[in-house]
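Input record, target 12 of the design panel.
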């Protein structure tokens, strides 16, 4: 049984933020480097693109309208689905076939 930190590192190593955000944010035109326009923010009732940014190298995200932010795709999964850390890593592992 892996501990939580190892599990998290393994997931972050196995799922690239670019693939993850292309899946989660299908309307965003993501480029391959650094901070990208993430399209409509999933954390508030957004109707105007331009506030929500994702970093496709680190997985960090930030909304300048509602202040949602996090440092990686696990943080994004936790916030989006209201999961705790362990639940989020399990869901990512299941969804992406990472074991
Ligand atoms: Zn927002």
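The sequence produced for target 12 reads:
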């Amino acid at each position: 049984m892996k501990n939580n930190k190892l599990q998290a590192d393994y997931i972050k190593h196995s799922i690239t933020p670019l693939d993850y955000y292309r899946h989660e944010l299908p309307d965003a035109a993501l480029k391959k480097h650094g901070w990208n326009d993430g399209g409509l923010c999933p954390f508030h009732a957004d109707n105007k693109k331009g506030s929500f940014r994702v970093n496709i190298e680190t997985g960090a995200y930030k909304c300048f309208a509602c202040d949602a932010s996090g440092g990686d795709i696990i943080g994004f999964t936790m916030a989006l689905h209201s999961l705790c850390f362990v639940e989020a890593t399990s869901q990512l592992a299941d969804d992406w076939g990472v074991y």
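The helical segments are 4-14, 17-24, 73-81, 85-96.
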